[in-house]
């Protein structure tokens, strides 16, 4: 709830489902899950909002905050459905987007796929101007070269323009003058300045980020403005905040200007939930496992903080290989995302192997079991056939599952080509998708030199509780937590996220000759910029400030993240900064280098409100005895590789301290937790399900 004791509303648009969570004063939550409406995503949002408000018998005036996360920006980038976009860049640099890093992410494949630039070459227009690396003007901005671009912009129907000049992150004067001129002569164009959206060193990443922001900005700005207006028309007169990829909340105005910061907003909400659950359970090393209808997201959380990064790749086109996507420089929670969800389509390849994903049936038509015309076997169809889903409880009973259709597509697509019984075909599909997720987890952990067997798991999303035990077995995990309202976990995570905004500035300097006055001036400017955003979403809140620097030894090609004290810097801090860098370097590499100077490439500053704690609902439901549970269901047991009879329990009927032994299903409106033979499930004091291996 908000500071005035009013309810809060969270909405998450996913690739298959749209989740809505209403948190009432006292902590009780009302949730719903609807199929995403691709053509008009706002339809599912508004219908879900109306539904939870009816269920809670609550007037919109009683809602104090709305938080929204969406995949619209991500989908537009992947599907190439954004605005017609042009790039104005320094003469001689129009091909930087295609030259990229001039490396090969797959050394021995001569047929590698590269991501297609969002801006085609004929819309990358050269402008005569030049700055040096210190921001000194070498060539003044030639207005005639800008005027020469107008016929191209007009003739090609350009809707959005990215402006990215060389070294403008140090001196943005030429970009700003260009924007002012374009705003006068073509006021209908959407404008993105690279010096605003990504004021960082490295030309390719900066231009790529600016183009991506320009590409999705008209779509996102229009959608957000319409959504805000439609919610207001329903009677909601409260702040409307957006979830960002970095795990914080930002204002509508900032989100509309920099929509690229929203690309991983849904998965970020899930990581925030996992952090809260891990902290409440006292699990300090956790694997967050979020499996929805379209993708699975995996994130490492250590000491109750998820790993973070300043970069992210959208639309990896070559086997999800790093380097094969569009780079975006934004604050983001570090995770791996693969095409493994309930809607992921299964097939038999030419070698007679079962393959699953990354293609998804989505919500239109969805898996065959949805009864909406799907004719290809999907993971959900396999789960239905294996008995992992209690049909009458699926999606809160919003629609009836077609179990016969699920069996037919499994038979035709998997069982008959391989000469298998339908049950073994379904088990094969499940095993492949589970191994895909386990393999992605191993690879992600290996990148950071971490071990998974010593970790616990937090599993949420509509499909994760169905697969958590099996994925955990493959990874050697001993304990798994399925949070309350796991099926709408990312939306619940939105309610826990703080209002926050990160600002970055690149100023390359050596520690031996650091300009402390410049650094302090930068910090003051960054603080004001961050405060201007945060104060709109968290007026009157006590705020905290966090600073970092990206540093390296002179001569190195990559930098590391270093924590900085929040102080006014002077020459007395030279040793402090060096010690902070060496401590971070030693943690990563086990040693430091003597006699080599250190340089700073970028400075970051984040202002945020305090991290929210999960609300605890007043008045737990009266417990029912285990003997009064609804019944039993046939469940395919992966250990015995045969069908067994499993108990079916209503999650809302179980109370803290109660234990269920597998084989069993614990069902709720938005998901089902599968407890296999070798596991037991206990309800912990916060209402979460704790899964442990049986002794």
Task: Please tell me about this protein's structure.
It is a single chain. By secondary structure, the chain is an alpha+beta fold. Among the domains are: 7-77 and 221-262, ATPase, nucleotide binding domain (Nucleotidyltransferase, domain 5, 2-Layer Sandwich); 83-206, Rossmann fold, CATH 3.40.50; 500-608, Dna Ligase, domain 1 (2-Layer Sandwich); 626-693, no CATH class. The strands form nine sheets. Strands 13, 14, 15, 20, 23, 24, 31, 34 and 35 form a nine-stranded mixed sheet that branches. It starts with 6 loop residues before the first strand and ends with a strand. The relative contact order is 0.11.
- The helix fraction, in percent, is 25-40%
Beta-sheet strand percentage?
25-35%
Tell me the overall shape: globular
CATH topology of the domain at 83-206: Rossmann fold
Q: How many individual β-strands? A: 35
Query: Regions with pLDDT < 50 over 5+ consecutive residues?
Result: 616-628
Q: Span from first to last CA? A: 41 Å
- CATH class of the domain at 83-206, named Alpha Beta
Number of helices: 16
CATH architecture type of the domain at 83-206: 3-Layer(aba) Sandwich
Q: Structural class, please?
A: alpha+beta
Radius of gyration: 26 Å
Largest sheet: 9 strands, mixed
- Average pLDDT rating: 89
Oligomer: single chain
């Amino acid at each position: 709830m908000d500071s005035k004791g009013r309810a809060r509303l969270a909405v998450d648009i996913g690739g298959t489902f749209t989740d809505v969570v209403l948190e009432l004063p006292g902590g009780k939550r009302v949730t719903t899950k609807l199929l995403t409406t691709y053509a008009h995503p706002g339809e599912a949002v508004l219908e879900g909002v109306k539904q939870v408000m009816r269920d809670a018998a609550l007037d919109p005036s009683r809602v104090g905050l709305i938080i929204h996360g969406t995949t619209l920006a991500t989908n537009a980038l992947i599907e190439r459905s954004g605005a017609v976009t042009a790039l104005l860049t320094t003469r001689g640099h129009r091909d930087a987007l295609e030259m990229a890093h001039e490396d090969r992410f797959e050394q021995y494949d001569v047929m590698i796929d590269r991501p297609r630039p969002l801006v085609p070459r004929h819309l990358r227009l050269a402008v005569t101007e030049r700055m040096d690396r210190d921001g000194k003007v070498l060539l003044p901005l030639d207005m005639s070269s800008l005027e020469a671009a107008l016929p191209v912009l007009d003739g090609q129907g350009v809707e959005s323009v990215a402006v990215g000049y060389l070294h403008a992150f140090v001196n943005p004067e030429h970009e700003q003058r260009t924007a002012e001129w374009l705003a006068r002569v073509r006021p209908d164009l959407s404008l993105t300045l690279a010096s605003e959206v990504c004021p960082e060193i490295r030309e390719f990443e900066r231009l790529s980020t600016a183009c991506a922001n320009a590409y999705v900005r008209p779509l996102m700005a229009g959608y957000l403005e319409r959504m805000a207006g439609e919610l207001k028309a329903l009677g909601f007169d409260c702040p409307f905040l957006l979830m960002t990829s970095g795990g914080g909340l930002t204002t509508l105005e900032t989100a509309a200007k920099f929509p690229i910061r929203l690309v991983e907003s849904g998965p970020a909400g899930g990581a925030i939930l996992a952090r809260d659950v891990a902290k409440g359970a006292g699990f300090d090393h956790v694997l967050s496992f979020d499996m929805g209808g379209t993708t699975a997201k995996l994130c490492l959380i250590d000491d109750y903080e998820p790993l973070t990064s300043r970069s992210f790749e959208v639309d990896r086109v070559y086997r999800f290989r790093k380097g094969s996507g569009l780079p975006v420089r934004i604050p983001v929670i570090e995770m791996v995302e693969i095409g493994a969800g309930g809607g992921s389509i299964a097939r038999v390849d030419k070698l007679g192997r079962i393959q699953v994903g990354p293609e998804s049936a989505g919500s239109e038509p969805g898996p065959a079991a949805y009864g909406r015309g799907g004719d290809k076997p999907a993971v959900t169809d396999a789960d239905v056939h294996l008995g992992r889903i209690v049909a009458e409880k699926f999606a809160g009973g919003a629609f009836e599952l077609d179990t016969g259709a699920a069996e037919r597509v499994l038979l035709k697509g998997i069982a008959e080509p391989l000469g298998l019984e339908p049950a073994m075909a379904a088990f094969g599909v499940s095993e492949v998708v589970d191994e895909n997720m386990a393999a992605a987890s191993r690879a992600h952990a290996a990148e950071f030199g971490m071990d998974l067997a010593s970790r616990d798991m937090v599993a949420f999303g509509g499909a994760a509780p169905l697969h958590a035990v099996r994925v955990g077995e493959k990874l050697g995990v001993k304990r798994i937590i399925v949070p309350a309202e796991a099926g709408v976990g990312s939306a619940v995570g939105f309610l826990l996220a703080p209002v926050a905004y990160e600002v970055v500035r690149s100023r390359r300097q050596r520690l031996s000759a650091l300009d402390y006055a410049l650094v302090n001036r930068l910090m003051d400017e960054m603080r004001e910029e961050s405060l201007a955003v945060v104060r709109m979403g968290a007026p009157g809140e006590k705020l905290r400030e966090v600073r970092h620097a990206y540093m390296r030894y002179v001569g190195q090609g990559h930098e590391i993240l270093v924590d900085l004290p929040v102080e006014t810097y002077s020459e007395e801090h030279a040793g402090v900064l060096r010690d902070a860098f060496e401590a971070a370097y030693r943690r990563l590499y086990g040693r430091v280098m003597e006699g080599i100077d250190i340089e700073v490439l970028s400075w970051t500053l984040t202002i945020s409100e305090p991290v929210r704690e999960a609300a605890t609902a007043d008045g737990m439901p009266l417990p029912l005895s285990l003997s009064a549970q609804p019944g039993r269901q046939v469940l395919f047991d992966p250990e015995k590789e045969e069908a067994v009879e499993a108990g079916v329990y209503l999650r809302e009927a179980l109370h803290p301290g109660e234990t269920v032994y597998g084989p069993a299903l614990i069902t709720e409106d938005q998901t089902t937790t599968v407890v296999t033979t070798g596991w037991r499930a206990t309800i912990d004091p916060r209402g979460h399900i704790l899964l442990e291996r049986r002794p």
